Amino acid sequence: MILRVKVIPKASKDEVVGTMEDGTWKLKVTAVPEKGKANAAVCELLAAHFKVPITRASVISGQTSSFKHVRIHK
After folding, report:
1. Confidence of residue 57 (pLDDT cuts 50, 70, 90)
2. 3-class SS at 61?
3. The pTM is what?
């Protein structure tokens, strides 16, 4: 499955906030948006949410954007 996500970095905690009107998932991560740290946190958060190993979550587009597409392999 491929999810469109809006990421808010440097938050107080890692959490899935919910979905926006257009179906985009809204996520908060404590990681800073540098050197892929926020992207890694997004993958960790979504892997935990969907109860899959972290190796099954990957950012496929939007590496430097707050809007990303993330693939989750079940």
Report:
1. very high
2. strand
3. 0.93
The class level of CATH for 2-72 reads alpha beta
CA distance 53 to 72: 10
pLDDT digits 0-9 by tens, 9-33? 999 999 999 999 999 999 999 999 9
User: Which one-letter amino acid corresponds to residue 36?
Assistant: G
Domain boundaries, the chain: 2-72
7 contacts 68 by C-beta, under 8 angstroms: yes
Q: How far is CA 44 from CA 19, 68, 71, in A?
A: 18, 14, 12
Burial 15-30 (b: 16+ CB within 10 A, else e): eeeeeeeeeebebbbe
Task: Kindly report, residue by residue over 34-49, the tens digit of the pLDDT.
Answer: 999 999 999 999 999 9
